[in-house]
Amino acid sequence: MKRSLAILSSVTLAMALLAGCGNAKENEQSNGQTPSNQTEAGQNGEQTPAADPNDPLAQFPKLDMPFTVAADATIVEYQGGKLTGKEFEEFLRAINFMNPQQGSMIEIADKDALKAFAREYTATKILSGRADEAIKKESKDMAEQTFEKIKGQYLGFFGKDEAKFEKFLEGQAVSKEMIVGQMAIINDSINVLKKEIGDEDLKKEFDALDKANRTVASVRHILISTEQRPQEEALKLAQDLEARLKKGEDFAKLATEFTDDPGSKETGGLYEDTVVTQWVPEFKEAALTQPVGEVGPPVKTDYGYHIVKVEKRTEKTFDEMKEQLRAQALEKAYDAFSKNDLDKLISNYNIPEPKQPATK
User: Fold this and answer.
1) What burial letters (b/e) apply to 73-91, b meaning 16+ CB within 10 Å?
2) What is the CATH number of the domain that holds 283?
3) Are residues 298 and 344 in the same domain?
4) I need a surface site. Which of 3, 9, 103, 270 has the fewest CB within 10 A?
5) Strands (DSSP E) found in 50-91
6) 114 and 180: one domain?
7) Which domain holds residue 267?
8) Are strands 81-84 and 215-225 parallel, antiparallel or unpaired?
9) What global pTM score does this model have?
10) What is the per-residue DSSP string for 273-303?
11) Which of these, 166, 163, 172, lies nearest to 60 by C-alpha position?
12) pLDDT tens, position by position, 18-74
C-alpha cells in the first residue's frame, strides 16, 4: 500500500503478471504432493481428481475474498456518494486481474489492510467524479488499450487460446466490461490530477534540479573489495590494475577477471546509461567529473577501491525528462490530496470483518 493505488492504471503494472505464476506447482512440491496423489472431496464424500497442475489455468486460482458482504452494503460514506460492497469487490478482483501478486495480499488482508484498500479506492472514486466528458473518453480509451495489453500477456501464458482466456475470466468472476470499467475509473482519477500539471510547472522543476539529477553516464569499473582483504592490499591491487589499464590492457577483460562486483562482472564492469545519483557519493562524483575515456586513480567507497572509466556522459534535456517529472508531480499531487483532503471528505467507514485473522 506504500504506492497509491491510483497509479495502478499504468501499463507497467501488468509487466508483473507472470512473476506470480508457478506458485501452485511450487506449493505442490513443498507439500509433497504430485498430480498422481492429489484429490479433492466431491459431493457425497467422493474423491475427485484435483485440477491438473500442468493446466495454465491452475496457476490462477479464483481470488478468495477475505470477507463476506452484501452487494448493496455501504463500505464507505463520503461527501457526495458511497462505496458499496459490490464496487469494492469488483475493484479488488480487478486489482487481482492486473497483478496476481497483489491478489495474494488481498486474500490475507486484515481489517486495517481492508480499510486501506477501501480508503484508496474511495480517493479514486472522488477524483474520478471530477472528470469531464473529454477526460472520461480518454480514460475509457486508455482502459481498453490496457486491457488488450494485459490480455495479450495472459494469452501468451495460455498458448494463444482465446477459449482458455474466456474460461479464466469466468473463473475469476470478472468480465472485460468490469475490468475496463474499473481501470477507466482509476484513469479518470489520474487524468483529473494530470490536468492541473502544466509543462510550465514541470520546467520549473527541471530548472531546479542539480546537474547530477539530470546526468546519465555509462561507466566501466573494477571493484577491489576491502571486505575480505586489508585496505593496503586492496589499494595496491587497484593501483596495479590502474597501471595495467593505462598501458593499454583491455578494461572489460581485467574487470571480468578481477572485479568483486557481481552486478557488473558479466558485462566487463559496465554500468550503462545510469542516472549518476543512483551511485554512492564518491562513485557518483567520479562519474560526474572524471574525463570521458580516461582511467582515473582508485576511488575509495565503503565497498572498497574502484578503478573507474567513464565511457559516456550526457545531460538529459527537459523534453527527455518531462514525462518522468510529470509522473513524480502526479504522485505528489495524489499524496497531497490523500493527506490534506481525503479524510475530510470521508464521513464513515463500515469495513467488513475478515473471515479469519490474517496470516503472516
Assistant:
1) eebbebeeebbbbebbbbb
2) 3.10.50.40
3) no
4) 3
5) 74-78, 81-84
6) yes
7) 211-315
8) unpaired
9) 0.70
10) EEEGGGS-HHHHHHHHHSPTT-BPPPEEETT
11) 172
12) 333 433 334 433 333 333 333 343 444 444 445 566 677 888 888 999 999 999 999
